[in-house]
Design a protein that fits this description.
Layout lengths: L1 H23 L8 E9 L2 E8 L2 E4 L8 E9 L2 E11 L2 E8 L2 E6 L3 E10 L2 E11 L2 E8 L6 E7 L7 E5 L2 E10 L2 E8 L2 E2 L8 E9 L2 E8 L4 E5 L2 E5 L4 E10 L2 E10 L2 E8 L2 E4 L7 E9 L2 E9 L6 E7 L2 E8 L1 E8 L1
Antiparallel strand pairs: 1-2, 1-28, 2-3, 4-5, 5-6, 6-7, 8-9, 9-10, 10-11, 12-13, 13-14, 14-15, 16-17, 17-18, 18-19, 20-21, 21-22, 22-23, 24-25, 25-26, 26-27
Length: 337
Amino acid sequence: MKIQLFAMLTIAVLFTSCKKDKADDTPVAQTNVYVSGIQVTGGMNQGVVWKNGIATTNALNTGRHYYAHSIAVSGTDVYTTGFESTGNGGGRAHVWKNGALQYSLGDASSIGNGITVAGNNIYVAGGVFETQTLGRSVVWKNDDVAGYTILATASTGIAAKNVAVSGTDVYVCGQDINANGVIAKIWKNGVAMTLNDAQNCYINDIAIDGTDVYAIGDTFSGSIRVWKNGIATDISSPNSLYCYAIVISNNDIYIAGREVAGGKGTAKYWKNGVAVTLGDGIRNSYATGIAVKGTDIYACGAEEGTSNTSDYATIWKNGQRQTIGLQQSRATDIVVK
């Protein structure tokens, strides 16, 4: 009887062990961190994409400086936009897919600032500069064959900053410049929406959460302005604040930027208006992009080196810094999947 009982206990232990081993074999979903930016190689600025800290240079064989300003990820494909410097203050907007040049945008000097992908369509927010005294804020849907939508026109350089798509609606943020000064703008399907406290403010990014439309900008007085459905709220400090990116996650508002005090900038993000410091406060730093996955908060930007004043592209995960770029590099945008 003891032998039978021992055998039964042994089988039970083995069965339990096997079940545990099987559970441990369940694959854990990998998190991929995609970052766009610029890195100097051989004395030339080049647009790059870092995937999990590994850099790939966007292809462009013109011998000119070029830049990656924004990134979007759809399935396994990675899209970036930016511009190529063509000399004499001019440029040409480009779109890259998985590092290969897809097409150029604009029939004059142009720039791509923000990109998003919805279904089979690629949207780019940016600017077209017909002459030195005629600029347009525009949004492109796919390549130039489809043309672009003109959002605003001014005698000085203006450009749309970013684009977001919700269903069939296309939202673009930027600014207009007229006799009243600089005016923050959001356009829905090409038509300007109503924003309060929009004068003397630059608008930098936009996010859609359900039926709510959020945007952020820098005021001339040094505060961060946050709009929700056109109603403005300011984040203020005794020092100057600057913002670059916004994301909404579980009804929480995250904003990436920097605070400047005594001539030194420190990378920060704000969660529902409360600041979280990323930079060490000793070296100049700034945060240009932000993303949230689960309970993890990612930001990207740049921080000065420990032994020089050059920028190094940097990401922060839950406040922990990781340098991903070489000397003279900076990160511009981030997507986490």
